[in-house]
Specification:
single chain; alpha/beta; D-Maltodextrin-Binding Protein, domain 2; Alpha-Beta Plaits; 3 domains; 6-stranded mixed β-sheet; 25% strand; phenylalanine biosynthesis; aromatic amino acid biosynthesis; lyase; prephenate dehydratase activity
C-alpha cells in the first residue's frame, strides 16, 4: 500500500470521526430545542388564555435568521427547509397543526403545505377550494392552503371569490417554484403515446414544449395533476404531466424533466385561518375593496397608497356578487397594517370605498 493511500485513508477516518462528533452535537441540540418547546407549551397553558401554538410571525423570523446566518455550502432555501422540519417536529410536541389543502394527494398544493408547515403537520386533502374554506371556518382544521396565482397563467379566481363571503384571514403565503415532468407508468409504451393528461394550467404552462415534442398527441385536462398521474397507471398509451410528489406517490417513471416553458414558473399559495398575525418585520397586507360606480373611483382608491409611498404588489378586479357591472378590487402591498403610514392609508381608502375588508397582514413568503 502506497504512502498516498495510507494518508488518504487516515484523512477519511478523521473526517468521519469529526462528522460523528458533529452529529452527536446536532442531536443533543435538537433534543434541547424540543424540551424548550414543551416548556413553552406549559407556559402558554398556565396563562389561562386561548393558546396559539403556531405563530406565523415567530416562525418567519426564525427562518430568516437561519438564512442570514447561513455560511454555505448549503443554499439558503435548503437551510430554511431543514429548520422548518425541526420547528414542525417541535410544534407537534406542543399541539399537532391540522391543515386542509386543495387535493388530492400529490398536488403542488400539498407540496406547498408541507413546505410551509413541515412533515409533522396533519394534512388533509379536500376536493375543492370552497371545501377548504368551509373546513377552516367550521374549526375542523386550524389552517387551509389554497393556490391564488401563477406567474405565467395569472390569478386563480375561485380563491379570490371565496373571500367575498368569508370572514377568514390570510395568515401567510408560500411561493413554490413549479417544475413539470412528463411521466409514464410501467405499462406505458413510450413510442405509442396518444394522449397526455394534466391540469389545464399545467398544459398551458408546457404548451410550447408539447407543441415541439408531441404536436399530434391529444391533451386531456383533468381536475389535478395527481389525478392525471393516477389515470396513467392503467393506460398503456397515455402519459401525464405532474410534479415530483405525484411521480413518487404513484410510482411513475419520469420521461422528460422540467418541461415548463418558463424556468421561473412559480405559484403563490395562501395560508388561511382565523388569527390576526402580528408584524414579523417583513410583511405583506391583502385588502378587498368595493368602490362606488362613479368617475375617478379607481384614482381615489389608489391615490392614498401613492401619497404614503406604499408599494403595491398586485391589483386584481373581480365582478361583485351584489350587482351587475360592479366590481371588487383585491390589492396586495408591502408592509403590515399596524405601521402608521399603512394604517393612515387604510383609513383614507375606507372613507371613499363603499366597503373595505382587510384580509390579513402576514409574513412575506420566499422561494
Amino acid at each position: 500500500m502506497t504512502e498516498e493511500i495510507v494518508s488518504s485513508d487516515r484523512r477519511l477516518l478523521e473526517l468521519r470521526n469529526r462528522i460523528d462528533e458533529i452529529d452527536g452535537d446536532i442531536g443533543r441540540l435538537i433534543s434541547e430545542r424540543a424540551k424548550c418547546a414543551l416548556e413553552v407549551a406549559e407556559v402558554k397553558k398556565a396563562s389561562g388564555e386561548d393558546v396559539l401554538y403556531y405563530r406565523p410571525e415567530r416562525e418567519a423570523q426564525v427562518l430568516r435568521r437561519a438564512m442570514e446566518r447561513n455560511e454555505g455550502p448549503l443554499t439558503d432555501e435548503e437551510m430554511a427547509r431543514l429548520f422548518r422540519e425541526i420547528m414542525s417536529a417541535c410544534l407537534a410536541l406542543e399541539e399537532p397543526v391540522k391543515i386542509a389543502y386543495l387535493g388530492p394527494e400529490g398536488t403542488f398544493t400539498q407540496q406547498a403545505a408541507l413546505k410551509h408547515f413541515g412533515h409533522s403537520a396533519q394534512c388533509r386533502p379536500l376536493a375543492a377550494i370552497d371545501e377548504v374554506f368551509r373546513e377552516v371556518e367550521a374549526g375542523a382544521v386550524s389552517y387551509g392552503v389554497v393556490p391564488v396565482e401563477n406567474s405565467t397563467e395569472g390569478v386563480i379566481n375561485h380563491t379570490l371569490d371565496n373571500f367575498m363571503n368569508s370572514n377568514l384571514k390570510i395568515c401567510g403565503e408560500v411561493e413554490l417554484r413549479i417544475h413539470h415532468h412528463l411521466m409514464i407508468s410501467d405499462i406505458t409504451r413510450p413510442d405509442a403515446i396518444t394522449r397526455i393528461y394534466s391540469h389545464a394550467q399545467s398544459l398551458a404552462q408546457c404548451r410550447k414544449w408539447l407543441d415541439s415534442h408531441y404536436p399530434n398527441v391529444e391533451r386531456v385536462a383533468v381536475a389535478s395533476n395527481a389525478e392525471a398521474a393516477k389515470r396513467v397507471k392503467g393506460e398503456w398509451n397515455a402519459a401525464a404531466i405532474a410534479g415530483d410528489m405525484a411521480a413518487e406517490l404513484y410510482g411513475l417513471k419520469v420521461l422528460a424533466e422540467k418541461i415548463e416553458d418558463r424556468p421561473d414558473n412559480s405559484t403563490r399559495f395562501l395560508i388561511i385561518g382565523t388569527q390576526v398575525v402580528p408584524a414579523s418585520g417583513d410583511d405583506k397586507t391583502s385588502l378587498m375593496v368595493s368602490m362606488r360606480n362613479e368617475p375617478g373611483a379607481l384614482h381615489d382608491l389608489l391615490e392614498p397608497f401613492r401619497r404614503h409611498n406604499i408599494d403595491l404588489t398586485r391589483v386584481e378586479t373581480r365582478p361583485s356578487q351584489s350587482g351587475n357591472w360592479t366590481y371588487v378590487f383585491f390589492i396586495d402591498f408591502k408592509g403590515h397594517r399596524d405601521k402608521p403610514e399603512i394604517s393612515e392609508a387604510l383609513k383614507e381608502v375606507g372613507a371613499c370605498a363603499s366597503d373595505m375588508k382587510v384580509l390579513g397582514s402576514y409574513p412575506r413568503g420566499v422561494l
